[in-house]
Amino acid sequence: MRTLRVLTLLSAAVLLCSAAPGLAPLTCSEGNGPAAADKAVHHINEYHDHGYKFRLHEVQGNSVEQVDGGCNVKLQLDLRETKCHTTNPKPFEDCELREETERAVKANCTVLMTIKDGDATITKYECDTRQVNTNSEMVRICPDCPVLLPLNDSEGLKSVHEATTEFNKNTSNQHYYILKEVGRISSGYIMTSGMNYYAEFALVETRCPVGSRIVIEACTPLCPDRARHAFCKSSYSSENGLLSNDCDFYPAEVSPTAVLQ
């Protein structure tokens, strides 16, 4: 049986009250690694505007070069992907990590930072992401676990579009929502229902009122300070169509400086 369930709107006040504490001051000492890594991960998440937030797993390298008035720092960081989409206002420190069986993703990041007169600035960072375990390793660890698919997989996208359509049909929202991005698509075969597709995707609130006679895909999002987001997890069967679609609602974006005050 097909079911559609939309979870309760998250309270902006509760989320903002759980904002991360202030960062520790940075120095040019050799023991600055943890504080420097903390600042780097905050910076990466602040400017990471798609996909999921990351948490620090390990500092793999930390070199400090003394220069006039300060130092240059180079960090090698091993990060782990969380279950919090970037539209989720929850601090990344509070976000749950994925289990190995969920096809966990890691990011190897190189971060360059300058520290001068007690002021630290990220000058450059590069991250390379991949699964923690390769597909062949996952076959040994969990042979029956769903397999990650490319985000442009045609059947996977079909399941997302059907879930989005159903979302807009069964809603008490004032405005229609459109697809912002697909975060994950995985698939697995079930004897009774054929190939099943599991998707995670973000929707954004548009200017179009619910009930208006308009092609929803032509609607444009509200401004960031007004547009709410919905983050959904759907399951879809090749034989039975959409099976479920569970969505969390997030308030309009708040600037990082406002959140940390």
Automatic annotation (TrEMBL):
One of its GO terms (cellular component) is extracellular matrix. Residues 1-19 form the signal peptide. One of its GO terms (molecular function) is cysteine-type endopeptidase inhibitor activity. Residues 16-128, 141-248 form the Cystatin domain. Pfam families: Cystatin. SMART domains: CY. Transmembrane segments: none annotated. This is Cystatin domain-containing protein. Keywords: Disulfide bond, Glycoprotein, Signal. InterPro entries: Cystatin_dom, Cystatin_sf, Kininogen_Fetuin_HRG. The gene is LOC109194353.
